[in-house]
Write a structure and sequence with these properties.
single chain, 446 residues, alpha+beta, Rossmann fold, Dna Ligase, domain 1, D-amino Acid Aminotransferase, Chain A, domain 1, 3 domains, 8-stranded antiparallel beta sheet, 5-stranded parallel beta sheet
């Protein structure tokens, strides 16, 4: 096991990793920017090192400064968390070159599954269901039109190297396709340093179902079942839950097994999520692979009793997975609401500032993953999430009622948050019936 780990991240995920490390008897080094100098979780670290200014490019995205901090602190490993450098194969490669373990997949596995084009090819070989679309990157308009003639409209242009909605364009006819290809390539190049795009069939009312998987360095890979993440805004998840409601369990088991096959085929060690879209007939097609621990990992932890962050550290240290697929069981239902410092009534305008009221909920089956305390100042420089509220209960109806109760207990001010939106969604009839698709929230908020 590692002696000392550096956490190359901030906020709630930094605190989450810190706690897992301490429970494993590992010393923790936290890095921070000028904007996070007073972050309360830094006091829990064994050592804290400033790595630069508030802009992420000067701190959390600055590989040389993070590596310098790792060398100064003499760490054995670096945990990237999610976001920032978590899915940068070049960062994982630098760690390896500097003889520091990267807690995550190898650079080779990350490149294979992180690039959507290569991931689709690997998935196809592993008999994982994929969308009809181009076999590789699209070079020009004429090639795009030729592929579109085979798969039919509507279709979607996607960036091969990224996500979060950047580089995406939905096209419903040839004119739209021709006019959007170049713009998507330029946006992908600006966002990810890679202008490659591909096209595939677009589902109008798809549900987003993803499978949590983990592999070790001994050739083992297991799935920890699925999560439904269909409540989204502009491709950003708002609410996640497990298990997926209203879907045939046999179909879910089949898609979960296919995700584990993919991870094993890629010789992947660490936590990952294989994301799928499901159509009205409950047919699944792979969307992408996230080669890191995800924001919503606590949902899976609550229904399986596993500690995904600890497992990711243990497998990075060379330990085999302590269980096999037959040992993983689902128990009850879990829902997570992302609490962001945004005003949902003003088009989700960011709401940075000092929090003077912070009264989190409690009680049976309630978990809050947050780095916030009273007096914490939400900086304007980073993602607006201030916490994740997760509840667990014996069934979905009870889980919704428990989340509703917890949200009404949760008081945050004077900044605006998404708590009022979540309260409304817990009483939404379509959500209660488990029938929302990925565009439902956008239609509802119009």
């Amino acid at each position: 096991m590692f002696r000392r780990v550096l956490i190359a991240n901030r906020g709630e995920i930094a605190l989450r990793i810190l706690r897992a490390c301490h429970e494993l008897g590992i010393e923790v080094v936290c890095v921070y920017s000028d904007a996070d100098r007073d972050a309360p979780y830094l006091r829990l670290a064994d050592r804290a090192i400033c790595i630069g200014g508030a802009p992420a490019k000067d701190s959390y995205l600055n590989i040389s400064r993070i590596i310098s901090a790792a060398e100064i602190a003499d760490v054995d490993a670096i945990h990237p968390g999610y976001g920032f450098l978590a899915e940068r194969a070049d960062f994982a490669e630098v760690c390896r070159d500097c003889k520091v373990e990267f807690i995550g997949p190898s650079p080779e596995a990350m490149r294979l599954l992180g690039d959507k084009v290569d991931a689709k090819k690997t998935a196809k070989a592993a008999k994982v269901p994929i969308f009809p679309g181009s076999d590789g990157a699209i070079e020009d308009e004429d090639e795009a039109v030729e592929v579109a003639a085979k798969i039919g409209y509507p279709l979607i242009i996607k960036a091969a190297a990224g996500g979060g909605g950047r580089g995406m364009r939905v096209c419903r006819n040839e004119a739209s396709l021709r006019s959007n290809i170049r713009g998507a390539q330029q946006e992908a190049l600006a966002a990810f340093g890679n202008g490659a795009v591909f096209i595939e069939k677009f589902l109008e009312r798809a549900r987003h179902v993803e499978v949590q998987v983990i592999g070790d360095k001994h050739g083992h890979a297991v799935h920890l079942f699925e999560r439904d993440c269909s409540l989204q805004r502009r491709h950003q998840k708002i609410i996640e839950e497990a298990p997926a409601p209203g879907v045939d369990r046999k179909k879910l088991n089949a898609v979960c097994e296919s995700a584990a096959r993919l991870i094993k085929a890629a010789q992947y060690a660490g936590a990952a999520t294989v994301e799928f879209l499901m159509d009205d007939e409950q047919n699944f097609s792979m969307l992408e692979v996230n080669t890191r621990v995800q924001v919503e990992h606590p949902v899976t932890e609550m229904v399986t009793g596993t500690d995904i962050v600890k497992l990711s550290i243990q497998v990075a240290a060379g330990e085999p997975l302590p269980f096999r697929q037959r040992d993983v069981r689902l128990s009850g239902h879990a829902i997570e609401c992302r609490i962001n410092a945004e005003d949902p009534d003003r088009n989700f305008m960011p709401s940075a500032g000092t929090i003077t009221t912070w009264h989190p909920p409690g009680g049976p089956g309630v978990r809050l993953d947050s780095h916030v305390v009273t007096g914490y100042r939400v900086p304007p420089n980073y993602d607006s999430m201030v916490g994740k509220l997760i509840v667990h209960a014996e069934d979905r109806v009870s889980c919704i009622r428990r989340m509703e109760r917890s949200l009404h207990e949760f008081e945050v001010g004077p900044i605006k948050t998404t708590i009022p939106l979540h309260r409304r969604l817990m009483q939404d009839a379509a959500f209660e019936h488990g029938g929302v698709d990925i565009h439902y929230l956008e239609r509802t908020l119009k």
